[in-house]
Amino acid sequence: MKQIIPDKLYDVLKWIAIIVTPAISTFIAVISKIWGWADLGSMIAQTITAVGVLLGSLLCLSSVGYNASNKS
């Protein structure tokens, strides 16, 4: 199987999915409650979390496919 994205980009995207999106989502959820924007903050935090989960899932599928093709 041909590698679609370079290793460095994969590592950056993985770091974003695992570390950055949960951190930003948590920050927004907490700060929005402090400032009284609970509804808006919740929607933004949930959207960021959904993007992170999607990105992580796609990267996982890509990794499984790549590793399976390299074992042959």
Describe the structure.
The protein has about 70 residues and is mainly alpha-helical. The protein has one domain (about 10-65). The protein is about 85% helix and about 0% strand. The protein contains 2 helices and no strands. Helix 1 (about 5-35) packs antiparallel against helix 2. The longest helix has about 35 residues, at about 40-70. The model has no long low-confidence stretch (mean pLDDT about 90).
SSE topology sketch:
Layout: H1 7-34, H2 38-70
Helix pairs in contact: 1-2
What characteristics describe this protein?
mainly alpha
- What fraction of the residues are assigned to beta strands by DSSP? under 5%
Helix and strand pattern: HH
Counted by DSSP, the helix tally is 2
> Class by helix and strand content?
mainly alpha
Q: Whole-number radius of gyration?
A: 16 Å
The gross shape turns out to be elongated
The count of DSSP E runs of length 2 or more, i.e. the number of strands, is 0
What is the rounded distance between the termini?
Answer: 10 Å
Low-confidence stretches: none
Domain count: the total is 1
Residue share in helices? Answer: over 70%
**Oligomeric state of the chains?**
single chain
Summarize it.
This protein is mainly alpha-helical and 72 residues long. Helices cover 85% and strands 0% of the residues.
